[in-house]
Specification:
The complex is a heterodimer of chains A (about 120) and B (about 110).
Chain A lengths: L3 E4 L2 E4 L4 E8 L5 E7 L6 E7 L2 E5 L6 E7 L2 E7 L7 E8 L10 E2 L3 E5 L1
Parallel strand pairs in A: 2-11
Antiparallel strand pairs in A: 1-3, 3-8, 4-5, 4-9, 5-6, 7-8, 9-10, 9-11
Chain B lengths: L3 E2 L4 E5 L4 E7 L6 E7 L6 E7 L4 E3 L3 E6 L4 E6 L8 E9 L4 E4 L3 E6 L1
Parallel strand pairs in B: 2-11
Antiparallel strand pairs in B: 1-3, 3-8, 4-5, 4-9, 6-7, 7-8, 9-10, 9-11
The chains are: A mainly beta (about 120), B mainly beta (about 110).
Chain lengths: ~120, ~110
């Protein structure tokens, strides 16, 4: 299995809603990432988990809350979002083997619209 | 922080022609580089990578060239096809600290 899967594919939510994005990989990768991507822009890193521990938080607002239940799963919990948070949310994973190539493999993304 | 940028935000080519997409980087300590292709509504897809101790690497219809002297990376696509239409991102990786930076992207349009 060489895929990163993400659910849901599309999500529409109001500013008072609570929702979660899910990401899964079965490649044995030990690093997982959340990115936010606006139209015609490169992905912006939000969070990095390595060995199920949060290692990088790129000053993301607390209305985004990541969770890594195990080495294959990564969630992003959303609460009280703003319309400007509407974007494509990408999950990625990489082997996390020090000294070796750390190619990140991306999921298809969740297209989020906040109304 | 360090930045990775592209010279051309858009590129249009005729089907069958060769395409060249360029990328400038600023971190001379980067260990390797990746080109990703992102089609509309999809996540970035790995195309090809190159280590910093190499100058050239070839794949199927694609070639990546690395010029460390001027900190320049390029992706050459031979016999461009309509299916090659996408946004192409270069990414720069520094293994120490696991730093991973995307360039700004180039939108490639192939004209049939």
């Amino acid at each position: 299995d060489t895929e990163v899967t993400q659910t849901p594919k599309h999500l529409v939510m109001g500013m008072t809603n609570k929702k979660s994005l899910k990401c899964e990989q079965h490649m044995g990768h030990r690093a997982m990432y959340w990115y936010k991507q606006k139209a015609k822009k490169p992905p912006e890193l939000m969070f990095v988990y390595s060995y199920e521990k949060l290692s990088i938080n790129e000053s993301v607002p607390s209305r985004f809350s990541p969770e890594c239940p195990n080495s294959s799963l990564l969630n992003l919990h959303l609460h009280a979002l703003q319309p400007e948070d509407s974007a494509l949310y990408l999950c990625a994973s990489s082997p996390y083997q020090r000294g070796n190539e750390e190619t990140q493999y991306f999921g298809p993304g969740t297209r989020l619209l906040v109304l | 922080g360090e930045s990775v940028g592209l010279h051309l935000p858009t590129l249009s080519v005729q089907e069958g022609d060769n395409s060249i997409i360029n990328c400038a980087y600023s971190n001379s300590a980067s260990d390797y580089f990746i080109w990703y292709k992102q089609e509309s509504g999809k996540g970035p897809q790995f195309i090809i990578d190159i280590r910093s101790n190499m100058d050239k690497r070839q794949g199927q219809r694609v070639t990546v060239l690395l010029n460390k002297t001027v900190k320049h990376l390029s992706l050459q696509i031979a016999a461009t096809q309509p299916g090659d239409s996408a946004v192409y991102f270069c990414a720069e990786i520094t293994l120490t600290g696991n730093q991973f930076y995307f360039g700004t992207g180039t939108s490639l349009t192939v004209i049939p």
